[in-house]
Design a protein that fits this description.
The structure is a single chain. The chain is an alpha/beta fold. It is globular, with a radius of gyration of 18 Å. The protein has helices at residues 2-10, 50-54, 64-73, 94-103, 117-125, 143-147, 153-165, 183-192, 222-232, and strands at residues 18-23, 32-37, 80-85, 107-112, 131-135, 169-176, 198-203, 238-242. Helix 5 (117-125) packs parallel to helix 7.
Length: 243
C-alpha cells in the first residue's frame, strides 16, 4: 500500500507558474523556452519573486500539456527548455515532466539552489538534464545569514561535487548583491570552487523583494562587476558577467 502511494506522488504533474515562450538569455548558446516553477525552501532577502516564494498556493498553474503542446509546435525553432523557479527540485513531478520534454528532442537546462542533491543525482543519472546552473548564495560560513532559512550547507556542496565529477555541462553562479555580497565574498566563493568549469557573476536586479531593505538598493555598476571578475577569473577556465 505504501509503495503505491509513493508511486502516486511521483506521478503528480509539475506545477508551472509562468511560461516564457522564447528566451534569448536563459540557456547559453541556445534559443529556449522557460518554465518557472513555484515554491522555494530559501528566503533570500533580495529575491524579487515574492509570489513564487510566499504566495504560490494562489497561483493558477499552467497545465503541463499546454507547455508540451507549445514545445511540440516549435520543434526546429527552439532547441532548449530552461526550468527555473522557485526551486524546481522540490517537486516530485519534475522527473516525469523532463522525460516528456526530452522525448520531444529538447535539451534541458535546470536552475537550482543545490539543496536537493539526491534529486539532482537522479536527474543526472536519468539523463534528463543537459545543463545545470547552480546558484551559490554565499561563502560557506555565511550561508544561513544570506539565505535566511534552515539550510543543509553540506547538501548544497554535495550538489557542487556531483556536478564537478559528473558528465553534465554546468555553471556555478553568484549574485552580487550590494550590502550582502562583496568582492571578498566572491573571492572566497571562488577559492572554494577553484578549478570548476564555469563561474558566472550575476548582476543584482532590484525590485519588490522579500525584505524591503533591498528594494532601493542600487546594483553594482558593470565597471565594478568587471573589477570583481578580474579577482576571481584566475580560479576558473571560464568566468563571465551576466547582467
Amino acid at each position: 500500500m505504501g509503495r503505491r502511494r509513493r508511486h502516486g506522488r511521483e506521478r503528480q504533474p509539475l506545477p508551472i507558474a509562468r511560461y516564457q515562450r522564447l528566451s534569448l538569455r536563459d540557456y547559453p548558446g541556445r534559443l529556449c523556452a522557460k518554465a518557472v516553477v513555484p515554491g522555494c525552501n530559501f528566503r533570500c532577502p533580495y529575491c524579487t519573486k515574492t509570489d513564487l516564494v510566499l504566495d504560490h498556493q494562489r497561483i493558477e498553474p499552467i497545465l503541463e500539456r499546454e507547455v508540451l503542446d507549445h514545445l511540440y509546435r516549435v520543434r526546429g525553432y527552439l532547441d532548449g527548455l530552461c526550468v527555473g523557479g522557485g526551486e524546481p527540485t522540490l517537486h516530485n513531478g519534475l522527473l516525469l515532466f523532463l522525460y516528456k520534454v526530452k522525448a520531444l528532442g529538447y535539451r534541458v537546462k535546470l536552475d537550482t539552489n543545490g539543496s536537493r542533491p539526491k534529486r539532482l543525482r537522479k536527474l543526472m543519472g536519468e539523463k534528463v538534464v543537459d545543463y545545470v546552473s547552480l546558484d551559490i548564495k554565499a561563502p560557506l560560513d555565511r550561508y544561513h545569514e544570506v539565505v535566511r532559512a534552515k539550510v543543509d550547507v553540506d547538501a548544497v556542496w554535495e550538489s557542487v561535487r556531483l556536478l564537478r565529477r559528473g558528465h553534465v555541462d554546468y555553471e556555478f553562479r553568484a549574485t552580487a548583491v550590494p550590502r550582502l555580497i562583496d568582492s571578498r565574498d566572491l573571492e572566497e566563493i571562488a577559492q572554494t570552487l577553484v578549478g570548476s568549469k564555469r563561474f558566472v557573476i550575476q548582476q543584482y536586479r532590484p525590485g519588490k523583494s522579500l525584505c524591503t531593505e533591498f528594494e532601493g538598493v542600487e546594483p553594482y555598476s558593470e565597471a565594478k562587476l568587471e573589477e570583481f571578475k578580474v579577482k576571481v577569473e584566475p580560479y576558473f577556465p571560464e568566468c563571465e558577467i551576466r547582467v
